Amino acid sequence: EVHKLNQQLEEKNGEIQQMINQPPYEKEREILRLQKTLAEKEKAQATSDVLCRSLTDETHQLQRKLASTAEMCQHLAKCLEEKQRKEKQNSDDQIPTERSNQVFLQLLESSLQALVCNLQDENRMLKQKVAHV
């Protein structure tokens, strides 16, 4: 390990000596190249920071949307339960009520499936953006 480190140190010293022995115009050219590289990396970092902030904001927005959707679903489920209780009390109209409950459940299920699909698509897009960043 020490031998490896000494060898690396010698290589770095050799690079430093080469830089010192270069003519001034080559040193200036190297400095300019390094400054340009630094500026590009700073720009890339700034872009990355903006994208990360944007993704974070979008994630929070999606979490709020999901929470409100879950709350709405719970509310609809409670309404359905109340409606079923009321309809059980009125046994005269039980058969048409069961049909309307089935229709309501199908509508609820299809809307939930649509919401899940939308959220999955948005999640996939976020993952792609994160991978890109």
Provide a concise account of the structure shown.
The chain has helices spanning 2-21, 24-89, 94-132. The chain is mainly α and 133 residues long. It folds into two domains: 1-95; 96-132.
Structure commentary:
The protein has 133 residues and is mainly alpha-helical. The chain has two domains: 1-95; 96-132. The protein has helices at 2-21, 24-89, 94-132. The longest helix is centred in the middle third of the chain and has 66 residues, at 24-89. The two termini are 36 Å apart.
Structural class: mainly alpha
Unreliable spans are: none
Number of helices: 3
Whole-number tally of structural domains: 2
Radius of gyration: 32 Å
The best one-word shape is rod-shaped
**Topology as H/E string?**
HHH
Helicity, as a percent range:
over 70%
Distance from first to last alpha carbon: 36 Å
Give the total of beta strands. Answer: 0
Main beta sheet strand tally, sense and closure: none
- Please state roughly what percent of the residues sit in beta strands, choosing from under 5%, 5-15%, 15-25%, 25-35%, 35-45% or over 45%: under 5%
Quote the average pLDDT. Answer: 84
Keywords: Coiled coil
GO cellular component, one term: cytoplasm
Protein name: TNIP2 protein
